[in-house]
Amino acid sequence: MTAITDPATLDVDRVRADFPVLARRIGERPLVYLDSAATSQKPLPVLDAVERYYWYSNANVHRGVHTLGTEATELFENARRRIAAFIDAPEDGVVFVRNATEGINLVAASYARELLSPGDRIVLTEMEHHSNLVPWQLAAEHAGLELAYIGVRDDGTLDLERAAELLRPPTRLLSIAHQSNVLGTINPVRQLVEMAHEHGAVVCVDAAQSVPHMPVSVRSLDCDFLAFSGHKMCAPMGIGVLWARPELLERMPPFLGGGSMILRVDLDHSTWNSVPHKFEAGTPDVASAAGLAVACDYLDAVGRDRIHAHELSLTRHLLDVLDEVGGLSVYGPGSVPERGGAVSFNVADVHPHDVGTILDREGVAVRAGHHCCQPLMRRLDVDATVRASMYLYNTHAEIDALGAALHEVKRVFRV
Ligand code: 7TS
Known about the structure:
- The chain is α/β, with parallel strands linked by helices.
- It contains 14 helices and 17 strands.
- Helix 2 packs antiparallel against helix 10 (286-302), helix 4 packs parallel to helix 5 (134-143) and helix 11 (304-325) packs parallel to helix 14 (396-413).
- It is globular, with a radius of gyration of 22 Å.
- Mean pLDDT is 96; it is low at 1-5.
């Protein structure tokens, strides 16, 4: 398989030099990291930003009158502005959370559970990550809400006819992945938002697998909530973002109580700080927020259009390699650009964990399991899959290395 080279594409060698971990070896072999949908690796400027914060500016935010406290607060609030610009969204809707999971839980607990009424319906899809299923189940149980699901068609895309039926009263909220972490499917979020808004429902977008990989504009999606994690986009673990329409945040009661989120506390009641601070109780992860802002700079310097095009090119190559290996079941849309760079497959009836173990011996890191999508596994009629997922630092040679390692799996298991 020859590598596809195009001078207009991103300079992968230059990018790779920024990621120290990519120089590692696994035993005798160079690391081939194809698990970025689980978490991305971190470039030097992000590692430097975290270190610089703790070396020179560490202090608590929003309280000190001293210089370090002011600097830490500026770093944190500048990070909020940087992230708002990155997702093209109004800045007072950016709530810092730990990860996409916490962002979705915030919406489920403070919006669905508190502001919806018994009998109201929440629509999800069959391809959602557990983080975009369980919080709604908890809210539905608490508040007497109904849950309904848009099905997944055999080609790994959503059943949009069913979506049109479901996105009518009594539906009040749709929550949907922008890009599936298993199938790679890129869902038509803008179209679904229009359908939902036409009937007065709000839309929450699980952007954990889209914001890191392609330009995402909250203004053009016109969604009401959007959640994502820093650690999948070159930033540290422990920081994530919920963007919400500020007018919805105004109406929503706090999710967590404590320091920073209050205006005044009396013994019998309290009043709340302004939005978005009302949703940020306790000391935040300032270093990781600073790292996330630098990750935004890094991804924009490389160019998100270029990253997306690079991943599509790798995905096309990977689909060809899997076809050439033969005897595999590959899930999700068969063609780009309806899909992004997360590709799930199985090797005959070899258990995915066994495939993953042999691949690891060859230096290739993939994920094997249900990928926190048990209902989707049932829809695909499998217990688990192997998943290769790509990012800006992956090369065409690495895709070929995966192909060679899969031949080794077939040899070992005689399939
Ligand atoms: N939503 C989607 C679509 C995801 O892929 C993930 C994580 C989450 C939400 C939750 O993100 P977290 O940062 O809050 O944990 N997905 C994966 C994965 O595919 N493999 O490991 C984590």
